[in-house]
């Protein structure tokens, strides 16, 4: 099973693409099998702050530059933090996604990474 924030779910045992009806039927089947309220079955995690920012840069940073920026930034997000910095596969910009326990920290990390990416990409541009 795979999923996206948009709600797009792929249940590869049944279909190869996202299908809302198949997803809904599988959720209902799980609720029925558990014989518990949907509110209990479907509440499986606590959402934490996540920010996604798209950044246009004058030059594509190297893998080493991105790795260094990420390595320095990730610990600030705490034990629950995640960080993804990558070029878009279809558009001319970089995607920065960060999540952590505190929204203000996540925003600060995103802002700092954006600034640092602009700095390193301007050096050899």
What would your notes on this structure say?
The chain has two domains: 2-41, no CATH class; 50-123, TATA-Binding Protein (2-Layer Sandwich). The protein has helices spanning 20-34, 38-41, 63-73, 103-123; strands at residues 2-3, 9-10, 50-55, 82-87, 94-99. Strands 3-5-4 form a three-stranded antiparallel sheet, with helices on one face. The radius of gyration is 19 Å and the shape is elongated. With 125 residues, it is α+β, with helices and mostly antiparallel strands. A hairpin with a 6-residue loop joins strand 4 (82-87) and strand 5. The chain is built from four helices and five strands.
Which features would summarize this protein structure in a list?
about 120 residues; alpha+beta; TATA-Binding Protein; 2 domains; 3-stranded antiparallel sheet; two-stranded antiparallel sheet; 4 helices; 5 strands; about 20% strand; elongated
Q: Quick one: CATH class of the largest domain?
A: Alpha Beta
Low-confidence region ranges: none
Q: What integer is the average pLDDT?
A: 87
Helix vs. strand class: alpha+beta
**CATH homologous superfamily identity of the largest domain:** Alpha-D-phosphohexomutase, C-terminal domain
SSE string, helices as H and strands as E: EEHHEHEEH
- Strand order, sheet with most strands: 3-5-4
Gross morphology: elongated
Portion of residues in beta strands equals 15-25%
How far apart are the first and last residues' alpha carbons, in Å?
A: 42 Å
Supply the number of structural domains: 2
CATH architecture of the largest domain: 2-Layer Sandwich
Helix content: 40-55%
CATH topology of the largest domain: TATA-Binding Protein
Q: What is the CA-based Rg, rounded?
A: 19 Å
Main sheet attributes: strand count, strand direction, barrel closure: 3 strands, antiparallel
How many beta-strand segments?
5
SS field, number of helical segments: 4
């Amino acid at each position: 099973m795979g999923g996206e924030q948009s709600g797009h779910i792929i249940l590869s045992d049944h279909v190869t693409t996202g299908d809302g009806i198949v997803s809904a039927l599988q959720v209902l089947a799980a609720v029925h099998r558990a014989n518990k309220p949907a509110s209990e079955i479907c509440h499986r995690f606590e959402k934490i702050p996540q920010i996604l920012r798209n950044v246009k840069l004058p030059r594509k940073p190297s893998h080493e530059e991105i790795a260094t920026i990420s390595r320095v930034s990730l610990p600030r997000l705490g034990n629950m933090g995640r960080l993804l910095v990558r070029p878009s596969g279809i558009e001319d910009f970089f995607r920065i996604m960060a999540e952590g326990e505190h929204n203000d920290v996540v925003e600060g990390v995103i802002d700092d990474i954006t600034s640092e990416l602009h700095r390193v990409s301007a050096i050899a541009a």
